[in-house]
């Protein structure tokens, strides 16, 4: 397994980033492989005056959290985030400098992703979140930052996470 490694799980809303992140972390834990895992959206869960401010704060938070993990001796990070373009990826790499970076994009049918979002986002922003699935998917298609993609539909989360870790060279 590579040292000083960052594995980014990207994909549209509803592609399963958070679920696969948690399962990949569990697989590494069962194998006693030291690592950290962060669902990056959780570090930017604020509403500031502009999205730019939100992203800036989120990546400052990531840098702080990663520095704490690194101070504890960790060298591997699993990260879930829809990476919308090279600028955002650069912000991420400034916060978590790693010599080995692998990006995996999770995919599923538009219907499946929208159904997943509809099922979990049951409040005031449901309609806008469901609409965002299509928009974000197109943005990720254009950015094409991933090293490889994995289909995350009609498969067990364990199978997807296992394949993710193997293809990334972590197992």
Description:
By secondary structure, the protein is an alpha/beta fold. It is 52% helix and 16% strand. Strands 2-3-1-4-5 form a 5-stranded parallel sheet. Helix 3 (51-71) packs parallel to helix 4. The mean pLDDT is 95.
Can you summarize this structure?
With 171 residues, the chain is of the alpha/beta class.
Main sheet: strands, sense, barrel: 5 strands, parallel
- The average pLDDT value, as a whole number, equals 95
Report the uncertain regions.
Answer: none
Helix and strand succession? EHEHHEHEHHEH
Strand order of the largest sheet: 2-3-1-4-5
**Distance between the ends:** 6 Å
Work out the helicity level. 40-55%
Shape: globular
Number of strands: 5
Number of helices: 7
- Helix/strand/pairing category: alpha/beta
Could you tell me the radius of gyration in angstroms?
A: 16 Å
> What portion of the residues fall into strands of 2 or more residues?
15-25%
